[in-house]
Amino acid sequence: MSKWSMQKLPKWIWIVIPVALLLGSIALFLATNPLKPLGVVAPPIEEVTVERTILDEEGIHLTVRVNGSEPVRIAQVLVDDAYWQFTQKPEGPLTRLSSAKIDIPYPWVQHELHEITIITSTGMTFSHTIEVAEPTPEWSIQRIAAYILLGIYIGVIPVALGLLFYPYLRTLGSTGINFLLTLTIGLLFYLLIDTLQEGFEMSQQVAGVFNGNLLVWVTAGVAFLIIFALGRRGGKAPEGLSLSTYLALGIGFHNLGEGLAVGAAMASGEAALGSFLVVGFTLHNLTEGIGIAAPLLNRKTKFRTFVFLTLLAGLPAAFGTLIGAFAYSPHWTAVLLAIGAGAILQVIVEVGTYLYKNTETKSWFTVSNLTGFVLGIAIMYGTALLVAI
Amino acid sequence: MKSKFSRKSFLKTGLFSGATALLGSLITGTPFSRSQQHSNDKKTADPPNEKKPHGGMSTVGLVDHKRNGFNPHEMLTDWDTGEVSQLPNGQTLREYEFVAIDKEIEIAPGVFFPAWTYNGRVPGPTIRCMEGDRIRIHFINAGSHPHTIHFHGIHSAEMDGVPGTGPGMIEPAESFTYEFDAKPFGCHLYHCHSSPLKRHIHKGLYGAFIVDPDPARHAEHSDIARSRLLGSEENESWQEFLIVMNGFDTNFDNDNEIYAANTVAFAYQNEPIRIDRERPVRIYLINTTEFDPINSFHLHANFFDFYDHGTTLTPTREMIDTVMMCQAQRGILEFTFEDFEPGKFMFHAHQSEFAELGWMSFFDLVNNREVSV
């Protein structure tokens, strides 16, 4: 091809040609099966994940998602080691990533454990445990109100109580404030690890194809970068009220995850007698309020602002309990927890930056600061013992 | 799957019921303390369970016996007497051809198992002969692994069908002829004895080897011996069935997902075995269950006499309704439903787990001498 004709071609042709060649090579690969000489005859890999369980008067209802190189056929269903009748909607083989509802008219027993096993046509088994059988809650105004109230107890009230320390905290000198900020970093550090860990635990239940662990890492990373960029869009690190706002946002995400866990646990009966937990959470989350107050100590703050920060940090817990109780799905929960982790990391970075800038000697790695950091972790760990039974 | 909420360890919060009262009083009457309400009204209501059907214990759908090439209902009575001829010394010779074949079989509706089989069926052909007959089995291994046939019975070391003696394991595409006299009389079995043993047996390489007593050799119980002898007039009045108790580990975790009588889960629950209440019943029962040390047989609403290994003509146990058997143990059960009202009578493994995983069956008692299975 001469130089002249190359120049005459429209530019877009250089998108079309590589794409066309790519498609052509894929078609050729599929048509000729060049892997045949390798002698690899991979058996179909099947995976069936139970994403949602509903227990009611009719029996047990599961939402399952399947993954497999070939369509998966659910052949039989066992409950507690007994073959049981079931219906599947939609019927027939389930293609990769599709989901179906399995209805099993099984006389489950309240407060007891049930083990469900799904057998596919190839004889592979996938089991799902209902730890404590409880009727799945149905929507009712009263019940929604109760879950919101539960969220307020574990989210809003402790943050508000923490912020009540504000007047006293203001009497502290700059050393005290620094100490408090390092304490905040300590407790955020705890929350970061904790949130990530919960995200990974949740990702165990995510259908394998979604690659749960990777999803958590990537989402956390991207969330961090986005919130970090938002925070610094003015060209400098957030401080004062905006830093507190980001703190509240990060903690809010964490509380959303916490609310999800509590709501889902309550709904599935795993925390049937968990009122003690609510008390524990309230104490545990009190420190979050103190942390949010820390960047505001050397400026005047309106009461409204405190209300706003309290709601931003605490109210997500109420949404969490509702979502957890009524519309639980492990992959979305994992994503939300990962966003929370990213948000918390951003706050750690920004509080750290703030601390660094406000330390005149620039020697911020002091005994006092380190003590604050460790104490922050210790407080969170200590109060977490209240909810770990 | 593990608990969703292990971090907070929500489980076992029952320890803290006292604290419940604390918060319960804060949020009176709202459903989030509903666990208390539920436990309170459990006695009166417990509604979820009242309405729920308890009778749904079964597989869904039907097995395609045609595609399998064998039918558990036909297996009950398809005695294989072989190609019969006379040896020069007057002895009856029975010749069989056994071919080991890899074959995928449907063991419960929609559940397929990559079996290894004798002649394409699990259990393999039911050899039926008389004490003292000469048995000759031409074994061809058309499978993908080395196999043997090991017969329970009395024979030479050469014919034992185990690695390390005689021809040892018969490689794919090779063959061997096993030959021996049928003794002692009784209800026996044969199975592959290649290693690894567990896998070769549980994959489906086993079957029944029934040796009827020769009435001429048992003068003191010749009537009983004749009643056991296939083809004799006394035997005609009996309803004889073969039941091989087996299991299948579909996911290779050394634990059976399916238990069955003659391979197909719930085959005789979905379609009961019709029996004539006027005629006595004799069951040749063999346990080939792998991974579990024992299996059992329980008959409802009736009792039976039991002949351990079938090697006696008088019962080794009388008037029992449950018998326990270890792996490879077998026996003959005799009972009658004479004077019973027609109806369906259960029989099953009395390990409830096995029953609920497929080893659950019915006799359908009917008033008809011409009943055919």
Automatic annotation (TrEMBL), chain B:
Q: Which reaction does it catalyse?
A: nitric oxide + Fe(III)-[cytochrome c] + H2O = Fe(II)-[cytochrome c] + nitrite + 2 H(+)
What general EC class does the enzyme of this chain belong to?
A: oxidoreductase
tRNA processing as a keyword of this entry, yes or no, is: no
For bias type Basic and acidic residues, the affected ranges are: 39-53
Which InterPro entries has this protein been placed in? Answer: Cu-oxidase-like_N (IPR011707), Cu-oxidase_C (IPR011706), Cu-oxidase_fam (IPR045087), Cupredoxin (IPR008972), NO2-reductase_Cu (IPR001287), TAT_signal (IPR006311)
Record-listed Cu cation binding positions: H147, H152, H191, C192, H200, H350
Q: Does RNA-binding appear among the keywords?
A: no
Query: What EC number(s) does its UniProt record assign?
Result: 1.7.2.1
What does the subunit comment say?
Homotrimer.
**What family is it from?**
Belongs to the multicopper oxidase family.
Q: Which PANTHER family does this one have?
A: FI03373P-RELATED (PTHR11709:SF394), MULTI-COPPER OXIDASE (PTHR11709)
Name used for this protein in its record: Copper-containing nitrite reductase
